[in-house]
Amino acid sequence: MAKSVAETIYVLNGPNLNLLGTREPETYGHATLADIEKLCDDTSGQFGLKANCRQSNREGELIDFIHEAHASKAAGIIINAGGYSHTSVALHDALLAVKIPTVEVHISNIYARENFRHHSFTARAAFATLSGFGIDGYRLAINGLAAKIGIKAKA
Ligand code: CA2
Question: In which region does residue 21 sit, left (phi positive, over 0), alpha (psi from -120 to 50) or beta (all else)?
């Protein structure tokens, strides 16, 4: 009998998020990108899912990751597109094109910050957004994504 393969979710982090933990702790906390990726691995594992975590400072590479998620039949996407959330029609279009259930995450509460952060193009292509929970937003997002796609936590 064929061995079952864990379904994969893509966790995509955008520009400057590789700097987490090194500056602006008052806004983004002290956790690093590696901490986020471990949190996502652990949380995905609780649902029998595998997290494929990617970070890029380049818009086109983030779009390539979204296409790759589609090609590899990913079950979902968690995306924090960083500053591109507020500017990128192209990322919005890529997310809409692949039709993969997507949750947008922001570490900070973008609605309590500058006006230019209040609009997100990528949020329009997501079924839910979490903003302001710090890095715990990623854990909550994976829980919400799993519920949306009908996957229960393993005993
Ligand atoms: O709150 C979030 O997660 C953001 O997506 C973070 C973006 C910002 O442009 C969005 O408006 C909200 C910025 C990420 C920059 O990350 C840094 C981390 C440490 C030091 C400097 C920047």
Answer: left
Residue burial 53-82, b: 16+ Cβ < 10 Å; e: rest: bbbbeebeebbebbeebbeeebbbbbbbbb
The pLDDT tens digits for 11-35 are 999 999 999 999 889 999 999 999 9
Angstrom CA distances, 76 to 34, 100, 109, 138, stand at 20, 6, 23, 13
Residue nearest to atom 15 of ligand 1 (CA): 16
Annotated catalytic sites, by residue?
28, 106
Q: What stretch of H or E contains 14?
A: none
pTM for the predicted model, two decimal places: 0.96
Q: Whose CA is nearest to atom 5 of ligand 1?
A: 82
pLDDT single digits (tens) 57-87 = 999 999 999 999 999 999 999 999 999 999 9
Distance 83 CA to ligand 1 centre (A): 7
Rounded to the nearest angstrom, the distance between the alpha carbon of 29 and the centre of ligand 1 is 11
